[in-house]
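Collaboration report, partner site 2.

Our partner group contributed sequences for two proteins of shared interest, and the home lab folded both. The records are reproduced in the order in which they were received, starting with the first partner submission.
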Amino acid sequence: MAAFVVDCRDTPDDAAGNLGRGAERRKSMWLPDEHGLLHRHDVLDSGVTQRELEAAIASGELVLVSRGVYLQESRISESSRYRGDVLYRARCLAVGAAKPGEQPALLSHDSAAALHGLPVLLPTRTRVHRFAQRPHGGNAKERKTVFHTGTVPDEDIVEVDGVRVTGLARTVVDLALTGPFHRALAAFDAGLARGLDRDELAERLAVRRRGVGTARFALRHANPLADNPGESWCRAQVIEARLPIPALQVRHDLRDGSVAYVDLDFDGQVVVEFDGLTKYRQATIGSKHSPEEVVIREKLREDKLRELGLDMVRTVWQELRDASFIPVLTDHLGRRGLC
């Protein structure tokens, strides 16, 4: 009689099935905290093996956000925010979470802004900012955490999602004091849009501090109508070039009966539209329109504005970075006798 050998090892199809079932099993065993973060010790305590954890990381199912802290890829892809923003906020939450036996961190600057949901122009997403709570010292800029020195009064400390951060007004002023004019202007624009009081912000700038001159100048020009940091940067370049100051979010009644609001308006003759990718992404969220359809609709809107005799100037991030926006705008303004 012939002998039959039964190989109990997985066939390729079986192995794939087992991997899939393993992934599903792991998903059901993940125990995220209130912020959606997974902590290595909790994961292993839940019954997931070290090998399974490593497999989830290697496959991209889990993304490392801080030492021993992970975020599920599905949570990142389901978010309406940019991937970098989601990961940075998760990292700030991980660093700011109170740890047994340690003094809770106090996050500041870009990190506090991330937890406040405050838009920042050209944000730093490589380091977490926190206060060292001592009167002098220095910044450890070569590390993944930047320690800012100085003292923060209790009234300038709030909790966001269980993490101690500088309050909104203090955060805006800190950003303005440590950034060039365009970053300072964007910070104040965003702060005023969130309801901060201009006079209170001015009082915080009444003392001599490094960067206070630039911050005061930015506050004088700050406008809560700026829709996003890109628009603030456009206006900052206009101000620095000593061109006429535009009105923001000006309404134009189109000939077909619809209404359009433009980003920057120069005397109802030249208008500037900033085309950041965020505009088109946000326009597609919760909409039946594809990104391509949104772009086409924007082009039709532009044509309708031109029908009113408006001179249209569009700009993008790269033109702001390489300083090619102002020469183009100056040419358009000159042709209309506005500069």
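Second partner submission, folded after the first:
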Amino acid sequence: MKMAIAGANGSGKSSLAKAILDSSEEAFFESGEVLLSPTMKAVYLDQTYALINREKTILENMQAANSNLNYQLLRQQLGHFLFKYDDVNKSASVLSGGELARLALAIISISEIDLLILDEPTNNLDIETVEQVVEGINEYQGALWVISHDLDFLSRINITKAFKLSQQAIQMTRYLPKESEQYYQELLNDS
């Protein structure tokens, strides 16, 4: 399942994701309960790409993500995300925003993840990197939850359910992002 959640800035989309994953002290539910299987592996990819260890190289980050893959497969996957030759030995600390996004997707592509939560994944990315993100997401086989205002992006990643967050309540939308005009109007009418 690929799910999108939309809402005005400050409506609580990121806080909801963090509360569900319990990854933030300041995120909490006023009421209700969410149960995740203890065996479920969920990854939250925020806008700063915190899952990347900036003190390691590109290749070391990939090795840490899946130590079962051999060197050749890691290099092949990095090449798919445009990291070639000696670039793989660069420190992650010197990467641009687009390069960090590509590395995060490369890490995700080799990780065993049941639920991937992407928080505004196309913010500050160039067109080529957005294309890479779309391709990577469309190849991803697990459950996906996307927090995004980018309707073009959402319409290209085969969202199967969409929700809107307004006034601290979440509701399913009548339209999916691929029905761009109706989806956009539904979100606008709710703000």
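Feedback sent to the partner group on the second submission included the following. The radius of gyration is 17 Å. The helical segments are 13-21, 58-65, 71-80, 97-110, 127-139, 151-155, 180-190.
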